[in-house]
Amino acid sequence: MVAVVGSSNVDLVLEVEHFTVVGETQRASSFDRFPGGKGANQAVASRRLGTETLFLSCIGNDENGQFIERILYQEKLSDFLIKKHSANGFAFIEVCLSTAENRIMIYPGANSLLTVEEVEERITKLLFADILVLQNEIPLETTVFCARKFHEAGKFVILDPAPAEGITKDIAGYVDLIMPNESEAKFLCGYSESAEILSKAIIEMGFSSVLLKMGEKGSYYNAHDGSSFFCPAFAVDAVDTTAAGDVFVGAFAAALDRRMRLRNSTRFASAAAAISVTRKGAQTSIPVLDEVKGFLKARDHGEEARHN
């Protein structure tokens, strides 16, 4: 079982020809509203990919909060939602049509109101899970508290340091695996270097292992015991990269929960993320287990045919 403690957002997505620059007014070609939030995205990915998942999050009492509640109820992830007298969190996202890249601005709303006390009230049930997934879109003290409680219970703790601001070595001793993307890794280290150097620097902060997400360049694992490996990404025609990193994290946790090895879990996560970028939206892009299995089977057959 996987537990996710984190954010629930509504994503307001505009498709544009290029990222809007200072002083420019640009006409968007489309507008959509999608369910999102790093915590919710990762929980939905874990759940759709075959793993029993618990999700603790705060939602607003506005129409956006009602929208999120309906979606998470359909995903069977609404049991631990806490409704706040607040606007729901939302993200304003520009998607560049020519590159499929995105630029994201977040208003935390109800996400900023998830307290240590509210987690403590529910910790006994949450600890039924073997794996905990955390991000950084709720108060950091709450995130650290969750990591410490699961670590003390002997559970496996995954941290997606997104956004990376505020993440310090104070949480490092409670985290088994940190999963930054390249920009987050560079922020944590304070400089831009190769995947190997960045991951070693993060380990020197006190984290025991790192899985660096590098988008279309693949992913790189490094651990304090010296073990490491590179996992290439799958080539696909990307439409929208929003939430690809979240799908990767949720899929990795789901695979790890099914006792897949680290390298195989990483490849499974890469496949799920690859499928997601061929579709629009965050949670709307997340595949189900049979899709990922079919994708991997087709790629494996393709590799065999090339070698025969």
Features:
308 residues, alpha/beta, UDP-N-acetylmuramoyl-L-alanine:D-glutamate ligase, 6-stranded parallel beta sheet, 4-stranded mixed beta sheet, 9 helices, 13 strands, globular
Query: Would you identify the CATH H-level superfamily of one domain?
Result: Ribokinase
SS-based structural class? alpha/beta
Strands, total number: 13
Distance between the termini: 40 Å
Question: What string, H for helix and E for strand, traces the elements in order?
Answer: EEEHEHEEEHEHEEHHEEEHHH
The CATH level-2 architecture of one domain is identified as 3-Layer(aba) Sandwich
> Mean of residue pLDDT?
92
Counting H and I runs of at least 4 residues, what is the number of helices?
9
CATH class of one domain: Alpha Beta
**Sequence of strands across the biggest β-sheet:** 5-4-1-8-9-10
Which overall shape is indicated by the principal axes computed on the Cα atoms? globular
Beta-strand residue percentage: 15-25%
CATH topology category name of one domain: UDP-N-acetylmuramoyl-L-alanine:D-glutamate ligase
CA-atom Rg in angstroms? 19 Å
Q: Give the % helix.
A: 25-40%
Which regions have little confidence, pLDDT < 50, spanning 5+ residues? none
Give a written overview of the molecule:
- The structure is a single chain.
- The protein contains nine helices and 13 strands.
- The longest helix is centred in the last third of the chain and has 19 residues, at 289-307.
- The chain has a domain at 2-6 and 38-59 and 112-299: 3-Layer(aba) Sandwich (UDP-N-acetylmuramoyl-L-alanine:D-glutamate ligase).
- Helix 1 (38-48) crosses helix 7, helix 5 (182-189) crosses helix 6 and helix 7 packs antiparallel against helix 8.
- It is an alpha/beta fold.
- The protein has helices at residues 38-48, 63-74, 116-126, 140-152, 182-189, 195-204, 244-257, 262-276, 289-307; strands at residues 2-5, 9-16, 30-36, 53-60, 80-84, 89-96, 102-107, 131-134, 156-159, 177-178, 209-213, 219-223, 228-231.
- The chain has a six-stranded parallel β-sheet with strand order 5-4-1-8-9-10, with helices on both faces.
